[in-house]
Amino acid sequence: GEGVFQAIDDTRPNGSIFIITNVRAGDMDDPNIQFGWTMGGQPGVIQAPNNDYTIVGKQAAEIAKSFTKDWHPRFKPLFDEMDESEAAFWKITCSTPSGVPEWPNEPRVTVIGDAAHSMTPAGGIGANTAVQDSALLGRLLREAGGYKPGVTAAYEKEMRVYGSKAVHQSYSTASVAFGVSINEETSPVV
């Protein structure tokens, strides 16, 4: 087949992990192809050593290898033969599913993209929403003939509407697919 594939390991008592890759069957025997993949898990399943979400290289690669040591032999080369220098561990955060919060407007400063509305990669809409932010802000600045009082407030008001919808969509997809759950009473993000 063609496209992006997901493999899920639901054998762990504390939750599932998964990989997403675009490996195609005919590519497996071509030594010139470097494969890319992303591993994820339900919250709390994959823990960074000492809560250090900045680790890269061999240490990050060893974490992936430890989770996949018992996987089917057809998957093993993805991990056993990875370029360890390219491995990275990172934590994904998501804004509250109830929407983009309001903050006091600073007339000459605003935020776009993840700074305004971070979301999981579920649904693949984060970058699109960031581009929508920049297009909206650019249009408002152009229509005003450059910076004018009220431009950033107008941008933030409109951005909160579609940004909140995008965060909710991403969160809903992540909840179903990966078991992500945010209790807004105790934590504004995961």
TrEMBL record:
State the UniProt keywords alphabetically: FAD, Flavoprotein, Monooxygenase, Oxidoreductase
Q: In the UniProt record, does the keyword Flavoprotein occur?
A: yes
State the InterPro entries in the record: FAD-bd (IPR002938), FAD/NAD-bd_sf (IPR036188)
What Pfam families would the database entry show? FAD_binding_3
GO MF terms held by the record = FAD binding; monooxygenase activity
- Gene3D superfamilies, per database record: FAD/NAD(P)-binding domain (3.50.50.60)
Keyword Flavoprotein set for record: yes
In terms of SUPFAM superfamilies, this protein maps to: FAD/NAD(P)-binding domain
Task: Say which domain of life the source belongs to.
Answer: Eukaryota
Q: Which cofactor does it need?
A: FAD
**Domain FAD-binding residues, every copy:** 105-169
Alphabetized PANTHER family for the sequence: FAD-BINDING DOMAIN-CONTAINING PROTEIN, MONOOXYGENASE, FAD-BINDING
List the protein's name: Fad-binding domain
Natural source organism: Fusarium albosuccineum
